[in-house]
Amino acid sequence: VEQLQVTRKIKKGEKALLVLGNTGDVVTFYQGITGLTNSEVYSSGYYLELMAKKRDELLSVVEPQGDVGKQLSLF
After folding, report:
1. In angstroms, what is the C-alpha Rg of the chain?
2. DSSP assignment of 8-51, as one string?
3. Predicted confidence pLDDT, tens digits, the chain (75 residues)
4. What are the extents of the domains in the chain?
5. What CA–CA distances, in Å, run from 73 to 61, 62, 64, 70?
6. Disulfide check for 28: which of 7, 17, 34, 48 has CB 3.0–4.6 Å away?
């Protein structure tokens, strides 16, 4: 859970974070099953979906489009 946590100040108008503190407070939170939290179980589905999106983004960059005879290099 420590690697999933975000620590930052609550901005004005951020209603979702007001359950964790007041505007201007610095809070640590992550995505739980019922929303943003700092104490309940994390949402594995949310983070798996996030990883799948990032994977698709990476594959769209490194996967050759069209001519498969060309190889792309990241270095």
Report:
1. 18
2. EEPPTT-GGGTTT--TT-EEEEEEETTEEESSS-B-HHHHHHHH
3. 888 999 999 999 999 999 999 999 999 999 999 999 999 999 999 999 999 999 999 988 887 665 555 666 666
4. 2-46
5. 10, 8, 10, 10
6. 7
